[in-house]
Amino acid sequence: MRQERVEEYLGAVYRLREDADAPVPLSRLTEYFGFSPVSVHEMVQKLEEEGWVHYHPYRGVTLSGVGLAAAMAVLRRHRLWERFLTDKLALPWDEAHEAAGDLEHAATEEVTERLATFLGEPDACPHGAPIPPQVQSASEICLCSLPVGAEARVSRIAPETPERLRLAAAWQLTPGRDLRVLAQGDAATEVLVYRAAAEMERTVAVPFEHAQAIWLEPA
Amino acid sequence: MRQERVEEYLGAVYRLREDADAPVPLSRLTEYFGFSPVSVHEMVQKLEEEGWVHYHPYRGVTLSGVGLAAAMAVLRRHRLWERFLTDKLALPWDEAHEAAGDLEHAATEEVTERLATFLGEPDACPHGAPIPPQVQSASEICLCSLPVGAEARVSRIAPETPERLRLAAAWQLTPGRDLRVLAQGDAATEVLVYRAAAEMERTVAVPFEHAQAIWLEPA
DNA sequence: ATGAATTATAAGGCATGCCTTACAAATCGA
DNA sequence: TCGATTTGTAAGGCATGCCTTATAATTCAT
Q1: Is omega for the bond preceding B147 within 30 degrees of 0, making it cis?
Q2: What is the value of pTM for the model shown?
């Protein structure tokens, strides 16, 4: 298997496994890549043969030791390049993910580590995802879970679709911004209302589907 | 054909055509890539079919209009990344070429142009090769051609092999450095003797094979 | 002008990584 | 527990881009 293919699969598994112990079903990978189930199944078997993942039939895949290390390396590269693209090249943050997807496979470990030094060893990508070996904060909660009146700081947008990123930027709900929940909209209409705190007097109505993807550190 | 493959071939043709009108023989490409003549021939035919090159049987290939434009874009990306790697990441210049070879296919036009801006629109790669649309200086001459006693400034190392680049760096014969020819060694022993000018009192004996690859702007 | 070297072309092969169709097995909800 | 849904497996296909072997055509130097 080509290294790039391996890396793409490992990166996908890493992203999709919410819990370290929960195997990622092949259906998730099928959906993630847009490949046929048969193709994914084939690749997963090869990945297992080569020791990258453990495959539990009818349950899904988990990363092996080497697989985890490789996945972390890939995600590290990806997110470092995202930082470079947004911070140094001023690429819009909704384009950074895709552009970094190509660069992550092209850069060697040496180049990546030099890039990390150049960038000042950042801890997170522009969308707030931790750059391995940095790990996800345990206290992070979803915007949907924040009680009315509570304040919090935006820490991450995930999953990061271009459209959602553009909206989040327009709402000024980007990592580091503070907000307070003004009111909870009707869950049926799928709208929640929030107000960014203090310095900026802005009130935005965030559709439920996007509020689900905005993660916070409570104040 | 995959775009990356096309770009590699066009880049090779661009580099190998000394004169715009002289077709590049397939044997040069065979040698450049280390592929079999048959494989190169196959690819060249496909490139011709798709309009990237003109193929003159038994003579070689020349770039078409679109092929030339594409080749220039590739070389531009390549050399901009080389500049980034050496200038911003402090990657040794003999490693920059290889590392850039992967990045050049991964970066989009938009990213490349932002990179150019970030780097301050450089005119040449770290090894002195012009970054398109910049063109090669016509007054450039080879170290072998410089008369004894004449002074000149190093402008370029080409062809750039890692070993040669390491030697050139050790000799401090890098683009921008001034030198004067002290004496001409015996061509049979393939050694020429030069002395870097003024500020640094250094005398080095440059083997003929490497002197052939050091290009100068006469003082 | 002829023979050696170069170049072209034909034919068949191989690994990769996708695809579809078809069918079997396991899981899970009602 | 039974049937629908999900998941696994087998079989065959396809494009890419390399490879080797073998043979034909051309070029070039003597």
Answers
A1: no
A2: 0.90
